[in-house]
Amino acid sequence: MPKGEFVSIFDCDHVPTRSFLQMTMGWFLKEKELAMMQTPHHFFSPDPFERNLGRFRKTPNEGTLFYGLVQDGNDMWDATFFCGSCAVIRRGPLDEIGGIAVETVTEDAHTSLRLHRRGIYLRLYAYSAGGGAGDGEFIRAYRPAHPLGARDGADIPPR
User: Fold this and answer.
1) Res 150 pLDDT > 70
2) What is the assigned CATH class of domain 6-152?
3) Tens digit of pLDDT for each residue in 49-66?
4) For the residues of 105-144, what is the DSSP string, one character each?
5) 0.85 surpassed by pTM
6) By C-alpha distance, which of 5, 19, 40, 21 is closest to 123?
């Protein structure tokens, strides 16, 4: 088992930009209490709505709304949450909460809640530093995550 001080997490269809660590790691040196730096997800292909409506790159997509408004607002109120990919997490706080929460399919949100409950803070680096396929034969083999997140977010046990 690796013992490094930091863990970088990417979905299987995501890759970091060349400058990912340069853009994110300095914040951990500046803010010693920082537990996680989340970066926006960027997809290189259209999501089902963009493809079916013929709107890919013609109108802002869901990620632009989420990372540009919702998550940015969360960050302002010290309520940023882990989105499961494109992030760096400090191992110490992650170990304190027992690692990534695996009891639900919304392990990212559940992990965020565990960190926030302990007063450990997370931040958003508002520039995309990783991207993913988001479509194609590889992705069709797997069930889309958004319906799971919408349905199973309620499965996160209350305090």
Assistant:
1) no
2) alpha beta
3) 777 888 777 877 777 788
4) S-HHHHHHHHHHHTT-EEEE--S--EEE--SSHHHHTS--
5) no
6) 40
